[in-house]
Amino acid sequence: MKLLLNPGAGWSATTPFLYTLSYHQKYCHCGHQKESGYLRKVYSNDFDQSIVDSDWNAPQKKIDSPMGKVLSVRNQYVKHFDPHFLEQYYKEPCTIQNYIEYYRRHWEAIRWEYESVSDFSNFNFSLPIEFLQKITPILQEFFEIKVTFQFRDPIRRFFSEVGSGIVKNIDGDDDLKERIWRKSKNHKKLFLYKLKKGHFSPNCEYLSTFEKYQKVFGEKNCHFVIMEDFWTKKDELERLSDFLSHKITKVHQNCYVPDMGSRAPRLEWLKDQWESDLIDIDEEILYEARTVMRPFYLHWQNKFGKLPDSWVDNVL
Which phi-psi region, left, alpha or beta, contains residue 151 (left: φ > 0; alpha: ψ -120 to 50)? Predict the structure, then answer.
């Protein structure tokens, strides 16, 4: 059976990418949640599971939505999980054996409609290579594994991540000044302060993460899409179709393309996108970000010989 891992990067339209593959193409199905965070829990039992448990108490309106019919906890695609198994699955300690059994049961129920099970936990982006190397041989006994990533213009992606942290009041490892700017909901000052201090999240590390997964799962089994291109260029759909051996013909709506900042369309079921940019990126922000984040662009250019056209303006 097939397992699609999609580690991210977060704030690069991972949710519309999942909807593209799951709702529109019926290629893969996650089970109860887009992001269970289960592998992170296997790695570290101090992981705060509450941040990914919201789907368990989803309101009926969400469950009745088109996306809810695919992903919610009370639809036809997850009724095969008996309560006793789920109770054990989410009880500590979390184990790789439980992870395998979850998707094995899921596959037996959906195999007539879908080609793959999937895990779209963005938390997997920062899993250490030593842990991945440890669990991969175990997973490969049961699954044919493919890995996909979405990468967005580095400055705009990080700006959205900072804004989302304000909206969701996520402190992380912030210092006192960052907590002050977050509490006051000052997106600009918080972003500029993070730039000044070099407080970048693991989601910024595109190349090292992609190469980490290539080393573990093999180059031929790893694929990335440039977010801005995937939603605008037909040949990107063809590349993904070839990688998955499954025809991809329709993409789900994406609030980040075209980029409209704080004026992004309020598309239903994509609130995590359109609420992330509290303000627009102005010239001061762009000037500071170009200076500090230039290495992220240069690393990409050195690796692939050129930058995606949609990223070039931010480093000129």
Answer: beta
Give the pLDDT confidence score for residue 172 in this predicted structure: 63
Residue 115 is given by DSSP the state S
Q: List pLDDT tens digits, range 153-192.
A: 999 999 999 999 999 887 666 788 888 888 999 999 999 9
Max distance between CA atoms of the chain, in angstroms, equals 57
Q: Distances from the Cα of 174 to the Cαs of 39, 55, 58, in angstroms? A: 25, 27, 30
CA distances from 9 to 69, 138, 165, 244, 252 (A): 25, 25, 15, 19, 18
| Burial status of residue 136 (CB atoms within 10 A of its CB: 0-12, 13-18, 19 or more) | middle
pTM: 0.92
For residue 226, the surrounding DSSP H or E stretch is strand 222-226
Domains of the chain: 2-315 (3.40.50.300)
Radius of gyration of the chain (CA): 19
Q: State both tokens at 54.
A: 């919201």
Residue 177, CA distances (Å) to 186, 204, 206, 225, 303 in order = 11, 21, 27, 35, 36
**307: Cβ contacts below 8 Å, ≥ 6 apart:** 297, 300, 301, 315
pLDDT digits (tens, 9 = 90+) for 3-51: 999 999 999 999 999 999 998 999 999 888 888 899 999 998 765 555 4
